[in-house]
Each structure stands twice: as C-alpha cells, then as structure tokens.
Amino acid sequence: MSCKQELEPLPILGNIDVVDGDTLYHTIPNFKFIDQDSQVVTNEDLDPYIYVSDFFFMSCPSICPKVKKQMLRVYDKFENEPLIKIVSHTIDPKRDTPEKLKEYSKNLEVDNAKWMFLTGDKDDIFEIAEDYFVAAFEDPDAPGGFDHSGMIILVDKSRHVRAFALGTEAEDVDEFMIKIQQLLDEYHSKV
Amino acid sequence: MSIILKSSLIILTIFVIGSCNPINYQQGKRSYDRHCASCHMEDGTGLVKLVPDVMFSKDELLNMESLPCMIRHGINSPDSIFQMLPNKEISEIEITNVINYILHDLNSIDSSYTLERTKSELKACHNTRE
C-alpha cells in the first residue's frame, strides 16, 4: 500500500490549440542570446534543463533588487540540482553589456554556469518576454526608463511554461519553489 | 485619590510614553519601505555585494559618513556598478525618522537622531559640495 500523496501534475500554461487532432501547447520559441561570458546561448543549450527565468535591468531603481533577492533564494535552494538553470534576461541591452552582466553576477556571488545573464537584440528580448508572459516595454516615465513585471517563470524541458510567481513576494516564491520541486520529481521519476 | 484611580493614571502614563516612540519608528518604517526597501530590502539585509546592507554596530556608526548626507545625495563610487541615487524628494523629518527606524528597529542601537542634527549635517555636506 502506498502512502505517497498523488499530486496533480503542474498545468501547461498559455494558449492551447488543436491542429489536425494534435494538441499544441504554448512553447517558448527558438532564441539566440549572449551570456555574461560573451558565449552564444540558444534554446538548444537549455534543452536538457528546466529553468527559472526573469527579466530585469541593472540600473533598475524599482522592483529588480527585490526580485533578484527572491531569485537568489531559488538559486540557493537548487544550487546542487544539476537539472536546473537560472536564466535572467536584461531588457536594457544597450547599457547591460556582457561585461557589465559579468560584473553583476560576480557581485551576486553566483556560479556563471548555473545562472546565466542574457543579453541580445532588443526586439528579440522584448518579443520573447511576451512568450514568458512578462510585460516589458520602454517607458521614459517609468523609473529607470523601462517598465516590466517582476514575474519569475518556470519552464520545463519541452519549453512549456509550468508555473510563475510574483518575484517581489516571498510567500508566492515559497509556493513556486514547491512547484519547481514537483516538476523535478516528475523528471526524476521518469528516469 | 483612590488607589484604582492612581494606578489607572500610572498605566495611562506608561501607555502614552510607551506609544510615543513606536509611532515615530512606524513613520520611519513607512518612509524606509517607500524610499529604501526596494534596494536595501525590508529587513535591511541588502543584496549580496550589489546593495550594501544597513546593519551596523554603534562603533561603525561613529566612523561612518553622515547618514542624512548619504540619503540625500546618494553615493557615487566609481568602482561600483551599483549607485545609490540621490533623493531630493525626501524631507528632513522623513530622513530623521528613517535613520531612527534603522538605528532602533533594524540595529537595536539606542541612540537617536534629532531633526536639528539632520539639518546641521545636511547643511555641512551641502556646503562641502558647493
């Protein structure tokens, strides 16, 4: 007799289309960005991993440090879990060059291989933000010149969005981390 | 005067004195949450090496640059990628309340800033900057 509690699998978020009898889930499209070591990172590099993603910019005077503090909690909790990566996108590629992002990650004292800081073509970044359900746009009236939500997003190996949390709210992130563990367990039980 | 009346007066006095300071720090907390917490965090712990914490001892406090001046004019250190922005909008009373909140509630330091001290330190750093 099993005492293990059966959990509902995490839902696949976003629009669902049915084409020719096939169910098509919302999927993060192909991408090509540059990380803090000036290395090209594509969706294929992330295929073997599940990852937690956010959008920010270094000179952000509003919510970014708070979100980073919560991302750091996620990083600390799953630091030794090889299946997980953390992927932060800057929405200010003009100022946040790979060199600056490297400096940033150094001052955050995180492992470069585990936590990627991505930059690239501005339009590409803003476009993919929508696929992560993160609103990001330039706004001269917003603090720092950009407006964006502090959402953090969980993406599985099939590039489906499985959960998200408000990166400014510790309690929300507590629940989010339980969901990450649940997704991890799904993969571990398949092996 | 009856004992009951006397003791209720004493209780009332304790209540009034006791509630004065917390009200002050409550205002300081509100200003701190509004002006400081998005970078230094609500609990004052900062963000690793990107944002310094606001935790310090009484000794450290004595050797620090003027707190009102830091809050008003920010810190622009060329070797850091993170700048503390100046804040022209915060009033002298708010600065005083924020500092007392940081000292008392975040650091359990029992010294206080007065509005006069804030004003005179701001004047001093204003003069050196001119």
Cα shape of chain B: elongated
**How much is the average pLDDT of chain A?**
92
Q: By helix and strand content of chain A, what is the structural category?
A: alpha+beta
Order of helices and strands of chain A: EEEEHEHEHEHEEEEH
Number of helices, where a helix is a run of at least 4 consecutive DSSP H or I residues of chain B: 6
Strand content of chain A: 25-35%
Distance between the termini of chain A: 22 Å
Please mark out the parts of chain A with pLDDT under 50 across 5 or more consecutive residues, or reply none: none
What is the number of beta strands of chain A? Answer: 11
Q: Measured on Cα atoms, how large is the radius of gyration of chain B?
A: 18 Å
- What's the story with the biggest beta sheet of chain B? none
Strand content of chain B: under 5%
How much helix, percentage-wise, in residues of chain A?
25-40%
**For the terminal residues of chain B, how far apart are their CA atoms?**
62 Å
Oligomer: heterodimer
- Unreliable residue runs of chain B: none
Radius of gyration of chain A: 17 Å
